[in-house]
Design goal:
alpha/beta; Nucleotidyltransferase, domain 5; six-stranded mixed β-sheet; two-stranded antiparallel sheet
C-alpha cells in the first residue's frame, strides 16, 4: 500500500509540473538598419510617392513630394481617388508624380523616383511580367512607362522602407480629407514642416528587419 501511494504521488507531480519550452534562436540574426530619406545629387530632382488604402472601405488616396539636391521642397501633391486597392493606389501615386514632372518642365532633369512598395518597384523598375494583373493596373503601368520614355535624362526607381518615405506617406494620408486634388509649391503645408526639416537634417530611424 505504501508503494502504491508513493507511485501515485510521483505521478501527480509529473502531471502538474509546468511544461518547459526550449526556444532555439537563430544565431544568424539580421541586424537592424538605419533608414532615412536620402538627398539626390546635384542636377537631380527626387520624387517620393505613396498610395494609401483603407482595407475595410476601400477608400484610397495618394501623395508625393519633390525635393532637390539641397533637400529644398519643390512641390507636394495629395489627392483622394475614391475606392481602390493598395496596389492601384501606389501606381496612381507614381503616375501622378510623373505627370507633374512633365507639367512643371522637369523633363530635362535627371529624376529619382522612390516609393515604399517593393512589388511596384519590381513591376516598373525590373520590368516584371504583369501575370494575373487586372486591366487597370496594366493601363497605368503602360502610361507610366510612356512618360518615363519622354524624359530626356536619367530616371531611376528605387525602393525605400516606410521610415524613409514619411513625407509622401503624410501627403497620402492628408488626401482623405480633400474633395479636390491639392498641390503645394515651394512651401510645404504646416503638417509637413517637421518631417521635411528632419529629412533635410538627415534624421534616421532604426528598423528591425
Amino acid at each position: 500500500m505504501r508503494l502504491l501511494v508513493s507511485r501515485i504521488f510521483r505521478h501527480e507531480i509529473l502531471v502538474h509540473r509546468p511544461v518547459q519550452f526550449v526556444v532555439i534562436r537563430n544565431s544568424h540574426k539580421v541586424p537592424p538598419v538605419q533608414v532615412g530619406w536620402e538627398k539626390p545629387e546635384s542636377g537631380w530632382i527626387k520624387l517620393n510617392f505613396d498610395g494609401s488604402c483603407k482595407c475595410k472601405s476601400g477608400r484610397s488616396s495618394i501623395g508625393g513630394v519633390f525635393r532637390d539636391h539641397n533637400a529644398e521642397f519643390l512641390l507636394g501633391y495629395s489627392e483622394f481617388i475614391g475606392k481602390s486597392n493598395s496596389t492601384i493606389a501606389e501606381i496612381i501615386a507614381l503616375r501622378r508624380g510623373l505627370e507633374l514632372v512633365l507639367e512643371n518642365g522637369w523633363g530635362d532633369n535627371s529624376v529619382w523616383l522612390e516609393g515604399d512598395s517593393k512589388s511596384l518597384v519590381d513591376i516598373i523598375g525590373k520590368r516584371k511580367q504583369l501575370v494575373n494583373r487586372c486591366g487597370e493596373v496594366q493601363k497605368h503601368v503602360t502610361h507610366i512607362n510612356s512618360i518615363i520614355s519622354e524624359l530626356n535624362n536619367q530616371c531611376i526607381l528605387t525602393h525605400v522602407f516606410r521610415e524613409g518615405n514619411r513625407a509622401a506617406d503624410k501627403f497620402a494620408q492628408m488626401g482623405y480629407h480633400f474633395k479636390n486634388p491639392q498641390v503645394w509649391r515651394h512651401v510645404p503645408p504646416n503638417e509637413l514642416l517637421r518631417i521635411v526639416h528632419e529629412d533635410a537634417e538627415g534624421k534616421t530611424f532604426l528598423r528591425r528587419r
